[in-house]
Amino acid sequence: MTPTLVRQHLPHSGARPRIDQWARARDWAEIQERMLVPLYEAVYERLEVGPSTRLLGLGCGSGLALLMAASRGASVTGLQAHAPERLALARERLSTEARGARAPGDARLTDGEPADIGRPAEAGYNLVTAFEPVGCVAGDSEGLAGALAAAVPLVGSGTPVVLAGWGPPERCATSSVLRVATKLADRLRGQGSWRPALRDDLEDVAERAGLRPDGSGRVACPFGYADTDNAVRGLLSTGFFDAAVAATDRVQVDKEVREALHPYARRDGTVWMPNVFRYLIARTA
């Protein structure tokens, strides 16, 4: 009788592969971040962001949302902790030379938390944004609630604070791909891996930060990529798959992500996944 060979993917026990953080940051800035442009536009349009806006962006990433606000004439300040590569790209994007005549004034970018910046000279900020989607990684809202609470002293009463998150999983085609992260990361008990968004994720964060909900909306944010390679690079730049890579290896994660993307590949090689994102407008007391 021929013995049956069983292939097992055991937790990775060797040296962890070194992640090229600069390459990841550029993949985020050049491929993935633009997928959220419809969300940024919808929020700015609803809140009439313009020359009178003094915006504080928490978790500003590589600065695309700040750049869009600045192009409307807003004065922008961005905070990004623990991601110096993304912050460096934000500085490139928001430099006076890069913006040219599109937006007046200088952008202010800080590597840190709200406590690391002071109150603006003219007045407090009159808009706070936290566009990094809430509720897609277990425990990701804990630090955000604290950051929001720390930002409250920098703004006036009734100031709008915008939170963003994934829409219902059944409305987000990308959910089926992100489930790969959870499946592979089970060996690490799902630590740091993706989870489906819950209905009240944004409201829960607002409540913990002492904010009062004052409206919400949904925005279509399809994820479109030039090809499968482009899609894999963009999705892995989110960090959702880090725990999966730690539990298995990059080759296995790459393979399974490609398989999960197959239903969304078009005949011309492009990849298209319709998604819905949600935003909540809350106000300070």
Automatic annotation (TrEMBL):
Question: Gene3D superfamilies from the xrefs?
Answer: Vaccinia Virus protein VP39 (3.40.50.150)
Looking up InterPro entries in the UniProt record yields: SAM-dependent_MTases_sf (IPR029063)
Query: Which biological processes are named by the entry's GO terms?
Result: methylation
| Name the UniProt record assigns to this protein | SAM-dependent methyltransferase
Any one GO MF annotation of this record: methyltransferase activity
Q: What is the originating organism of this protein?
A: Streptomyces apricus
Q: Record's SUPFAM superfamilies? A: S-adenosyl-L-methionine-dependent methyltransferases
- Supply the alphabetized keyword list: Methyltransferase, Transferase
